[in-house]
C-alpha cells in the first residue's frame, strides 16, 4: 500500500516536471514526504485513559517527544504486586499525538534507577526497526532519532530489546496517533485503552509480589488479560464517562504480547470503526478484532444512560482474567430506545476462583494458628475476590437473584449448610429471610482454610451470629456428598 502510494506520487512528480506546471505547492499535498514543517513544538504526552488535545488545523511541525522509561512496581489486582517496565510510567505508555507530515525528534531516556537497556519500535515509523535500531539505551542515558509521519492512523509502539516478548509482556507498549491533514472529525469524548496479557508465577489473584513467568508466556497461557495494565483499571470510580447524546471515540490498542482482542461494548454498537487503526471505516459493528501489535479506532454515540461494559468477548478473559472495563453514561432515560427495570451489577468481574489450579486441601493446622481477627481479615479479602460479585459488598445480595448474607436466617440456622453450599454449590429454590430465591451458586474451588476464613468473615459481619468456622469443619463437609437443596431444607 505504502509502496504503491510512493510509486503513484513518483509518477505524479514526473508528470509535473514534464508538463512544467503546478508551481504552487498544492501538487505535493498527496505526497506526505513533501509536506513542509513549520516551527517546532514539544509533544503533550498523556497516561491512559486520556489522550492529548487534537491536532486540529495546525500545520505539520517539528515535534519533540520526550519519553522516559521507568521500571516500577505496581498492582496487577488487589494484593497482587507486579514489576512493570513502562514508557513514561504507565501501562500502556504515554499516548503520542501527531499529524501527517510531522517530523518527530524522539528523545528516549532510560531512568538511572532502571536495571535494563531498552529501546522503542514505533509502527508509525518508516525506517529500520521502526526506530529500535537507533534507540537502544542503557539506564541513565538518552538516545535521539528522527522520523517523518507519512501514513495517518493509530499505531502501536513497543520495546524491542531481547527478550522482546518479555519486555512487551512487562508492559512496554503504547499508542501513537498520526492524524490526517486537518485532524480527525471532532467528537465529545476521547479515551485511550490498551489490552495486554500478563504471565505470573502464581495463578490469578495469588497474593504478594508475582514475578513474570516465561514458560506460561511461551505457551501463551496468560493469568491476566487486562485493559490498561491491571484488573479494574476502568471499573467503579475509574470508569470512563460520557453524557447521553455525546459521541465517544476510543483509541483501542493491543500490546499483546500474545492474545488477540475481540473488543466489544455490551449494550452499544460501534457507529464507526477505523479497521485496524487505518483509514478504512466500517459502520455498525458489534465486535472488532484488535490484533496483538495492532489497534482500532471505534466511535459511537451514547443514546441512553447506564453502565456499558467494555470486554474482550473471548469472554472468560473478561469475567475471569480481568479484561473488563466500564463506561458510565449519565442522562435522562429515552423509553423509545430502551425501557425496562435496570438492575445494576449484572456484569461484574467474577475473579479467578474457577480457573485457579486446584490446591491441596488444607489440613486445618494453618487455620488453628490464626486468631479470630486474622481469620476475619483473611476472609474479607477472599470475599472481595470470590463472593462480592453476587452477594455484594455489605452482604445485601441482589434482589430476586442472589440472597443476602447479612442477617441471614438461612446461614445462621446451620453452618454445615453454609459450608456445604460453598464446597458443593447450591441449586434450586431456597427461602432466605422470608423471600424465595431460585438461582445457581457454583461450587468454589477454595482450600479448607480459605473457606473457613471466608465463612468466619461472613458470620462475623452484618448482624450474623458470630460463628467461627474451622478448617476441620470444612474438611468434614468435603466427605459429605453434595446435597440437593431439598435435602438441605429438610
Ligand atoms: Cu524494554
TrEMBL record:
UniProt-annotated location(s): Periplasm
Reaction it catalyzes: nitric oxide + Fe(III)-[cytochrome c] + H2O = Fe(II)-[cytochrome c] + nitrite + 2 H(+)
UniProt keyword list: Copper, FAD, Flavoprotein, Heme, Iron, Metal-binding, Nitrate assimilation, Oxidoreductase, Periplasm, Repeat, Signal
Cofactor(s) the record lists: Cu(2+); Cu(+); FAD
Entries under PROSITE patterns matching the protein: CYTC (PS51007)
Region forming the signal peptide: 1-23
Domain Cytochrome c, chain residue ranges per copy: 374-462
InterPro entries: Cu-oxidase-like_N, Cu-oxidase_2nd, Cupredoxin, Cyt_c-like_dom, Cyt_c-like_dom_sf, Cytochrome_c-type_DH, NO2-reductase_Cu
Coiled coil (UniProt feature): none
GO cellular component, one term: periplasmic space
EC numbers: 1.7.2.1
Annotated positions binding Cu cation: 118, 123, 158-159, 167, 172, 313
EC category name: oxidoreductase
Pathway stated in the Swiss-Prot or TrEMBL entry: Nitrogen metabolism; nitrate reduction (denitrification); dinitrogen from nitrate: step 2/4
GO annotation terms (biological process): denitrification pathway; nitrate assimilation
Gene3D superfamilies according to UniProt: Cupredoxins - blue copper proteins, Cytochrome c-like domain
Primary location group: periplasm
MF annotations from Gene Ontology: copper ion binding; electron transfer activity; heme binding; nitrite reductase (NO-forming) activity
PANTHER family (alphabetical): ALCOHOL DEHYDROGENASE CYTOCHROME C SUBUNIT, BLL4482 PROTEIN-RELATED
UniProt record similarity statement: Belongs to the multicopper oxidase family.
Quaternary structure annotation from Swiss-Prot or TrEMBL: Homotrimer.
The protein's name in its UniProt record: Copper-containing nitrite reductase
Amino acid at each position: 500500500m505504502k509502496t504503491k502510494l510512493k510509486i503513484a506520487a513518483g509518477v505524479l512528480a514526473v508528470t509535473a516536471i514534464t508538463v512544467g506546471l503546478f508551481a504552487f505547492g498544492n501538487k505535493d499535498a498527496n505526497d506526505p514526504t513533501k509536506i513542509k514543517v513549520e516551527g517546532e513544538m514539544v509533544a503533550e504526552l498523556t497516561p491512559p485513559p486520556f489522550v492529548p488535545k487534537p491536532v486540529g488545523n495546525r500545520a505539520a511541525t517539528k515535534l519533540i517527544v520526550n519519553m522516559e522509561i521507568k521500571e516500577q512496581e505496581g498492582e496487577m489486582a488487589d494484593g497482587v504486586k507486579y514489576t512493570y517496565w513502562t514508557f513514561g510510567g504507565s501501562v500502556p505508555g504515554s499516548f503520542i499525538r501527531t499529524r501527517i507530515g510531522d517530523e518527530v525528534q524522539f528523545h528516549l531516556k532510560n531512568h538511572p534507577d532502571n536495571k535494563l537497556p531498552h529501546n522503542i519500535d514505533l509502527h508509525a515509523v518508516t525506517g529500520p526497526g521502526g526506530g529500535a535500531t537507533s534507540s537502544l539505551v542503557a539506564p541513565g542515558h538518552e538516545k535521539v532519532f528522527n522520523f517523518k509521519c507519512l501514513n495517518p492512523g493509530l499505531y502501536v509502539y513497543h520495546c524491542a530489546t531481547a527478550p522482546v516478548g518479555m519486555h512487551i509482556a512487562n508492559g512496554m507498549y503504547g499508542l501513537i496517533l498520526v492524524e490526517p491533514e486537518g485532524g480527525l472529525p471532532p467528537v465529545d469524548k476521547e479515551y485511550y485503552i490498551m489490552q495486554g496479557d500478563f504471565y505470573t508465577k502464581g495463578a490469578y489473584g495469588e497474593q504478594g509480589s508475582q514475578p513474570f513467568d516465561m514458560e506460561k508466556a511461551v505457551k501463551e497461557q496468560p493469568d491476566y488479560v487486562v485493559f490498561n495494565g491491571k484488573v479494574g483499571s476502568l471499573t467503579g470510580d475509574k470508569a470512563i464517562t460520557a453524557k447521553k447524546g455525546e459521541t465517544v471515540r476510543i483509541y483501542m490498542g493491543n500490546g499483546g504480547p500474545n492474545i488477540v482482542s475481540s473488543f466489544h461494548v455490551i449494550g452499544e454498537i460501534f457507529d464507526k470503526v477505523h479497521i485496524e487503526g487505518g483509514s478504512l471505516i466500517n459502520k455498525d459493528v458489534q465486535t472488532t478484532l484488535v490484533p496483538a501489535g495492532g489497534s482500532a479506532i471505534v466511535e459511537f454515540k451514547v443514546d441512553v444512560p447506564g453502565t456499558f461494559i467494555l470486554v474482550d468477548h473471548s469472554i472468560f478473559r473478561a469475567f475471569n482474567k480481568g479484561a473488563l472495563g466500564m463506561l458510565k453514561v449519565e442522562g435522562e432515560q429515552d423509553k423509545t430506545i430502551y425501557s425496562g427495570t435496570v438492575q445494576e451489577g449484572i456484569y461484574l468481574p467474577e475473579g479467578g476462583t474457577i480457573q485457579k489450579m486446584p490446591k491441596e486441601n488444607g489440613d486445618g493446622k494453618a487455620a488453628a494458628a490464626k486468631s479470630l481477627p486474622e481469620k476475619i481479615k483473611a476472609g474479607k479479602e477472599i470475599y472481595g475476590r470470590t463472593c462480592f460479585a453476587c452477594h455484594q459488598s455489605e452482604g445485601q445480595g441482589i434482589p430476586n437473584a442472589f440472597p443476602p448474607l447479612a442477617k441471614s436466617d438461612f446461614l445462621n440456622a446451620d453452618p454445615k449448610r453454609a459450608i456445604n453450599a460453598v464446597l458443593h454449590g447450591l441449586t434450586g429454590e431456597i427461602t432466605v429471610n422470608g423471600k424465595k430465591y431460585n438461582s445457581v451458586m457454583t461450587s468454589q474451588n477454595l482450600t479448607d482454610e480459605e473457606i473457613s476464613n471466608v465463612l468466619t468473615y461472613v458470620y462475623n459481619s452484618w448482624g450474623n451470629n458470630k460463628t467461627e468456622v474451622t478448617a476441620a469443619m470444612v474438611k468434614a463437609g468435603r466427605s459429605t456428598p453434595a446435597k440437593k437443596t431439598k435435602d438441605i431444607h429438610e
